[in-house]
Predict the structure.
Amino acid sequence: MIAQHKLALAQVLARARRAPLAWLMMVTVIGVTLALPAMLYVALDNMQRLAGGLATTPQISLFMAMDASREQVADVETQLKNRADVATWRFVSRDDAWKNMQADAELADVAAGLKKNPLPDAFVIEPKEHDNPAALDALQQEMQHWSGVESAQLDAVWVKRLHGLLALGNKLIALIAALLGFALLIITGNSIRLQIANQHEEIQLSRLIGATDRFIRRPFLYAGTLYGVGGGIAALLIVLAATWFFNDSVAEITALYASDFRLTVPLADMALPLIVGSALLGWLAARFAVGRALAGIENY
Amino acid sequence: MIKFDRVGKLYPGGHEALKNLSFEIAQGELVFVTGHSGAGKSTLLKLIAGLERATSGTVLIGHQNVSQLRRAALPFLRRKFGMVFQDHKLLFDRNLFDNVALPLHINGIVGQEAAKRVRAALDKVGLLGRERAMPVTLSGGEQQRLAIARAVVSRPEILIADEPTANLDESYATDLMQLFRSFNQVGVTVLIATHARGGEQSGGGRVLHLKQGTLT
């Protein structure tokens, strides 16, 4: 059985050697087609990384009640210290805030009109999980109920917006990948169909002298799968080349923002699914093509 | 070994190729199926090899009723036979060796064992040493012998040849018949369809003469 598989594979490789140009063309077509969604994925992945690394992390502003006691403020402080999901926090006392307000040129007039300090003690908190809106919401809800807390405000609008955009981007990639995958099925299927037509005589003879459908199908399935594997690798190389090509420009731009951000390809996440997915598409296309062809060469 | 019991074959369109045919062929026999073209010789051979299905009656090969075989079982029936087709059906895109190796590959025999058998088969038909040649470089008689090598390479119990000498001149045809007889002498059941009456059959062998789909 293994010998049969080796034989089929050897046949396919021999055929590829005889017509290297045709093989290369198929692999390139598949590679280019797959490179498009793969590049979008890389772009999105880098955007996500960039967004995660920027200073505009979401903050929770915790305002104490006006009548909160020193003990309650201290309690909140210890709670914040002990929490694992809080990255950093800063205490702004009502006196400091009042001084800041008076010092602020635009707010000084307003402050002057007030008889006493209207500001509460406050904490400015940076949660650890920047990019998980649900966790941020939960944290804010919980803090809201701490004793002595008047209100906890989450400035999460932009996080939600970003997530909305990224989710949209992901959906777009999925859609493009699905459409192009469908196109690849047709392209690969057609190429296999041509090969079958070229070997019509061999298939017919093989049937007459006792070949099973499985035997006849096998080399074509290998051909389709190899197209897929080759195409997946080609796509990966194209993405790597494109990233390298873009990185010069990215470096120039990010230098202006005093950042050393560079595009990176998430190879570990991407390589295997890309190649395996592509191989699977090739196999599937070949399966369809051979199935149709065999039904056409029916004898008996 | 082969038994026909009131076998009929009606092609779609109404052409009745075989009518109510009954005969038996024992193991190791040499049988000539004769008759004019259109008498049903090819159809008869195709029914035996499982390439066509009878429309009435039963065809027994061994103890298997061919007309009732499932489609998936047909390839395994066909492997019992070595077939020499009227039009050779050689593959011109590969050399002699690969042409002969095909039935072995279908049977799951590859590598050294296959190579050994391919050479033995080519040797039997006198083409050893030309394994790397392409079929197109062979003469008509040599092509026919290549087809025979391919038919016998997997050591079938039954060898079936459809008009093997049709396009050959006299001396070639005699050589070829000698070759078939030599296979028969080592125990292979041999069935040969030929339109010539007399001549080739001389020297032993039973004759089934067909006329318009019936035995005479």
Observations:
- The radius of gyration of chain B is 17 Å.
- DSSP finds six helices and ten strands in chain B.
- The mean pLDDT of chain B is 89.
